[in-house]
Amino acid sequence: MKRTVLNYIVDMGMLLSFVAVLLTGIVKFPILLRMPARRGVYVPSNGITLVHEWGGALMAAFILLHLILHWNWVLSSTKRIF
């Protein structure tokens, strides 16, 4: 697999997991969970929490992989700055 394709896959994984964590984090706000209940709509907070937690774990894994793939750049940039 080409390095460019691997970087793209990792970056898209970070983006998708970030969006999942962002949206479920917004929905998990207590006031937002109560609003649909007033209209008789049930929001499955356990499912939202599960997606939120797994999304966070996936995001952490993708960030770690991203740092590993770009470690030489991190080192050279740090040396250049200091």
User: What is the helix fraction of residues, given as a range?
Assistant: over 70%
Which class do the helix and strand fractions yield?
mainly alpha
Unreliable stretches (pLDDT < 50, length at least 5) are: none
**What is the H/E string?**
HHHH
Q: How many DSSP E strands?
A: 0
Mean pLDDT: 89
Count of helix runs: 4
Described by strand count, sense and barrel closure, the largest sheet is: none
Cα separation of the termini: 34 Å
Radius of gyration over alpha carbons? 18 Å
Short summary of the structure?
The chain has 82 residues and is mainly α. The protein is built from four helices and no strands. Helix content is 85%, strand content 0%.
Descriptive overview:
The mean pLDDT is 89. By secondary structure, this protein is an all-alpha fold. The chain contains four helices and no strands. Helix 1 (3-27) packs antiparallel against helix 3 (45-69). Helix content is 85%, strand content 0%.
List the helices and strands and how they pair.
Elements: H1 3-27, H2 30-38, H3 45-69, H4 71-81
Helix pairs in contact: 1-3
Task: Sum up the structure in keywords.
82 residues, mainly alpha, 4 helices, elongated
